[in-house]
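Standup, Tuesday
Yesterday: got the pipeline producing structure tokens again.
Today: sanity-check two examples.
Blockers: none.

Example 1:
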Amino acid sequence: MNPVRMAIVLVGVLGVLVALAWLGFALWPKAASSEAFQPSPVPTFTPRVTARAISAVASLAPTTLPKPVVTAIPTAFGVVTSRTLNLRAEPNLQASLVGTFKFGDIVPLVRRDSSWYQTSEGGWLSALFLEVRQTRAEAESYARELTG
């Protein structure tokens, strides 16, 4: 947590604790008094919002969304774990379909973008339906286990 947010939270918590403590003492009847209980008026709290506070909070908000991180990986091999897996032109579900793979197929992978892998041919596959291995031999062994 960054220091500005921590300070804002701390001030808020302290303010609540002070208000609760004051309220508790003000409403507590005096032990030695025989008078009827008369609660003290409850104070009102009006927070002061300054330009400095607004600019501090505004500086915490991101101005743009972060770009997806595309990571180049040394050639790895994905084993398809769904009945069919669509190969897409771009790493998103709205991209055009450029091919399909079937259960147990082994696909060379060259890059990862969030939850997508790029194949050596340039298409993209969802990482949800791939089991990735570092070598072709490991991928073939895993594919044999899958297909029995």
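Example 2:
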Amino acid sequence: MDARSGQKLWQTDLAKTTSPLEESWPLVPTRLTVTEKRLFLRRFSHAGIELVAIGRAKGNIQWIRSFAGQGDVVSDFVIAGGKLVALTSEKRPRGEQIYVAQFDPTSGEEISRQPLVRLRDSWLAYHACGLAADGSRLLATLGGAVLSFDVDGNMHWQRRQTWLSPMLDPNWPRSQSTPPLFAEIDGRKIAIVVQPGVPSVACVDPQTGRQIWHRAVWGIRSIVGSTGQNLIAQTDRGLLAIDMNNGKTMWSHSQTSDATAHLCGTKNVLTFEQQFTADGKHVESKIVWLDTKTGRVRATGTTGLISNATEPLLLGPVVAHNGSLLLTTGEAKDARNRQLVRLIPSGQPADTPPKVAAAK
């Protein structure tokens, strides 16, 4: 879509029916990998997990790589050292073998596959994998392990974390598998890792795997982003800011509803929340601006997005573009259909809580 006018430029239908495989991977939202000419993504179909390449200019499907009968693709694509890479798996007695695979971006053909690690069956309880690249170095989180390796499968280091069964965490379906976060603090590179089943945040040296700090956080669900100095994480209670230099809590912001749309900046953390209207019959979505250093609410703004009290809207993701916000929204009962909403500042003075107008 044209970000300014909202005009649809192209649309590609990837799945017309729900695949039962989606229920087997509830914690892993599909993320696009964007290059100059193509978009790469993973989709769930009745034939199994497939890799898809879409032309960026016209939205045409350029190729589909099926893995029917050949295992699963357990991560999204990443670009590492200029190569298109993903993690795949094959079933083995009492576990699964994980591979790092390279793919031809023009055809989808698998160029190489190297064994990486073998996981026990208990990993299937969460079925979650996060993968991130820093140059040619890859960092993965899965099954309570943190792995560092290159595109050829050469293992640099690996760490084990305290991994809990989902039977011990009744809210585990609220978790999301988020890729490790690379950052630089005071001139040194660090990596922040969070994964489903591990009730903690860890900061490691991406070169050596040495643990710099570790912070136990019960109910942590995902990494939201960073503000430069602070890590922003989503927990069962709301947002949590952690100093990435030492792991100390800087502030927390309570949220009574599941907030899934956030933006992190150097001065503000923007989050969407939903609250009951005065009559108690509807729920209205609002924007909250939090100070990155203190977590104090700096301002709030209404969006005009209202739903029935019994059916709150699904909000997110959200991106900032040319002074406005682009937000996807939809109804929980029909989660596969979303609308793209553009939120435009109304121009109120800076010393009053801003209002925004929604334009679909």
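Quick observation on example 2: Confidence is low (pLDDT under 50) at residues 349-360. Residues 12-129 form a domain with the Thrombin, subunit H fold (CATH 2.40.10.480).
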